[in-house]
Design brief:
single chain, six-stranded mixed beta sheet
Length: 681
């Protein structure tokens, strides 16, 4: 079958038994990997809700599941090779870096049960697993892609194995003019890993990840401007860069035939620089009110150190194998945020400062976590997996910030001196799995999870959004039950129902002339998630001469409603009722073809369920459908590819925002054609 499956009972030192999970194999997918087209690559994972911001200045599209907020993946625990890659998992959980899909071997997805082994967030885990070193001394891959709107992408990787040493590295360069005006961007990403196999029991590795980019942000539109021309831009002077650096050391040690451990230490030192005419003004850059005006300068610096120890051991009770996984995590993070600085009057990426910052804040997080899960095999077919996690988290803020209270004009600045918030979280859960046969199992799980209040929610980003001083962490209960497996090589399927109860959900709502970040109340999310792929040729023809033809369908029904608080009865924001993607795959003698239809029903942009607003920062997110197609042909060491995204050139959007990269509507990209050629030496 093509691309999608699920993880075995455990992988490495992580237990997956009894949990809703998927494993997506990237090399088996035909898609636009040059621009990390999220809809094509991971769209077949049932229920994934995608925020498409590549045309608006944020190239790492956000994702979410089961009606939680998908904006910049803030509700997801985003990892690469098992370690976090977002800015700060506890305080600024936004993924500015994602690896190029050409370098990714597979992607693991784990729903709400991820909270027990990985900590926050409520939406679950997404883990990008990069390719390993090939088993020969040297291999080199070069891939070039060109396409509409000035797209040019080149990806080069090298790798090999020599004696006890393994190495793998890639470099990617991408540039594009952009579908919208003022949306040109350049990006360089790279990665290098060296592994030393000291013995049959001990393996150590060191890797380094980097990202350098320059993104021109076209800003948002109101509803009438979007209807008139979604490609237009009223911002010509908004720029972003987000240099990203992660150094990671890993040790794998097989203590015995039944016990292994993994220790990972990761250090991230990254930043985000923004120069723009911020969301406080709707004046176009070319209007008299904007010409020659100073832009706003913002800078953020992230320094994180994380140490994570995991142990997995198999043992026996009454002759049956049991599996215990446990570990601990220690993390320290420091974020320095500078906002409201007086920037240059120029139109380029000029980060010079010409006046003081209105806000200069420092945030520190200290975290210690302990966790354990155990697979108890009860009989030959049934297993039960209880688990628990304890989290200690302390957040300290100090510095000064702009006073949001308009009645305090005499005191425009708030001084904050070591304001500390310490809390603990005790999470428990239990899962079960019943093996119907070797290829089909029934699974169920009920687990707690949480999402801490972020730094962005403690200080306003610009001045159209204010912060509720009584803001609390979100907590959730996730439960699901389903059946998954395969019938011969004909049908691959996974069908499940879920229940999510979200305490103290966090959202943005109108507050007079401004917007308020606040706890929007408790919400209940129920629904179903199904995936099925049918191998037509093996079902009817049993002949390899005509190739292989399969069809698949990924479907989710989500009913996410506020059940407590002032928004009781309203639909949760960014929670469409229906998400469906259906497609066709065909392979024959080196030729591959995929076509996919995607549909999302309407959703609301905030908890009040406002249908429209002059600001365009809240309102309806209309339903939309999109079609994509791609094809490739592989011969010898070469592979040629051709594809079209958004075949019918639909005009739609998936985001309204009161913040960066808006304000207003951020349109999605129209029709895009691309072609590429790769060669392996």
């Amino acid at each position: 079958m093509n691309g999608i499956g699920h993880v075995n009972d455990y992988s490495g030192q992580v237990i997956f038994s009894g949990k809703k999970n998927e494993l997506l194999t990237i090399d088996s997918l035909d898609a636009n990997k040059a621009v990390n087209n999220t809809r094509q690559i991971i769209g077949r994972i049932p229920g994934v809700n995608i925020i498409e911001t590549e045309a608006g200045g944020f190239t790492a599209n956000g994702i979410g599941f089961r009606g939680v907020n998908p904006y910049q993946s803030i509700e997801m625990n985003t990892r690469q090779n098992g370690y976090n890659i977002s800015a700060d998992i506890f305080g600024y959980n936004e993924a500015y870096y994602l690896p190029p899909m050409e370098a990714v071997s597979s992607i693991q997805f784990l729903r709400g049960a991820a909270g027990l082994q990985f900590g926050p967030q409520i939406g679950g885990l997404v883990n990008y697993i990069l390719k390993n070193a090939p088993a020969k001394p040297f291999e080199m891959t070069v891939s070039q892609t060109t396409g509409s709107f000035g797209l040019y992408n080149v990806y080069t990787s090298i790798g090999g194995t020599k004696g006890k040493w393994e190495y793998f590295a890639f470099a990617q360069y991408r540039t594009m003019d952009g579908w919208r005006a003022n949306s040109d961007q350049k990006q360089v990403s790279g990665y290098g890993k060296v592994t030393y196999n000291a013995s049959s029991k001990l393996k150590v590795s060191l890797d380094y990840t980097l990202l350098r980019n320059r993104i021109h942000m076209p800003g948002g539109l109101n509803d009438s401007e979007f209807q008139q021309n979604p490609q237009q831009s009223l911002r010509a002077r908004n720029w972003l860069q987000s240099p990203w650096n992660i150094i990671t050391a890993n040790l794998q040690y097989k203590m015995s035939a039944n016990t292994s451990l993994s220790f990972t230490s990761a250090y991230q030192f990254s930043q985000r620089d923004l120069i723009w005419q911020n969301e406080d003004s709707w004046y176009p850059d070319f209007s008299p009110d904007s010409i020659g005006a100073a832009r706003e300068l913002e800078k953020e610096y992230f320094n994180n150190i994380t140490n994570e120890l995991r142990v997995l051991t198999n043992y026996h009770i009454s002759g049956r194998e049991q599996t215990l996984a446990f570990g601990m995590r220690q993390a320290f993070s420091l974020m320095r945020r500078y906002e409201g600085g007086i920037g240059s009057t120029a139109g380029n990426l000029d980060l010079s400062q010409y006046g003081p910052y209105a806000t200069a804040m420092n945030f520190r997080n200290n975290n210690v976590s302990l966790f354990a899960e155990n697979i108890f095999h009860v009989g030959k077919k049934l297993s039960i997996t209880p688990g628990a996690r304890f989290e200690y988290l302390t957040t300290t803020a100090y510095g000064y910030a702009e006073n949001e209270d308009s009645s305090s004009a005499a005191n425009p600045t708030l001084n904050i001196n070591n304001q500390t918030n310490t809390r603990t979280f005790a999470l428990v859960g239990i899962g079960a799995q019943y093996e119907v046969n070797r290829k089909i199992n029934v699974y169920t799980n009920c687990s707690q999870s949480y999402r801490p209040v972020t730094y962005s929610e403690l200080t306003p980003f610009g001045t159209t959004a204010k912060i509720d001083p009584n803001l609390k962490d979100s907590k959730a209960l996730n439960a699901d039950m389903g059946i998954r497996g395969a019938i011969k090589n004909i049908l691959n399927f996974d069908a499940s129902a879920f229940y999510l109860y979200n305490y103290n959900g966090i959202g943005t709502v109108p507050d007079g002339a401004n917007f308020l970040v606040t706890n929007t109340g408790a919400s209940t999310h129920t629904g179903i998630e199904t995936y099925g792929e049918l191998n037509i040729t093996d079902l009817f023809f049993h002949s390899a001469k005509i190739g292989k033809l399969s069809v698949y369908n990924s479907f989710a029904y989500i009913n996410a409603v506020y059940t407590e608080g002032i928004y009781k009865g309203n639909q949760v924001e960014y929670a469409p009722h229906l998400i469906e993607r259906t497609g066709i795959n065909y392979w024959i003698k080196g030729f591959e073809f995929n076509a996919q239809y995607s549909y999302e029903s309407k959703a609301f942009g905030d908890a009040t369920n406002v249908v429209s607003d002059p600001s365009a920062e809240i309102g309806i997110l209309p339903s939309y459908w999109v079609m994509d197609a791609s094809a490739s042909y592989k011969w010898s060491k070469y592979k040629a590819s051709l594809g079209v995204n958004n075949i019918t050139d639909e005009k739609y959007f998936t985001l309204r925002t009161s913040e960066y990269p808006g304000p207003g509507i951020i349109p999605s990209v129209g029709r895009m054609i691309y072609c590429g050629l790769s060669v392996v030496f």
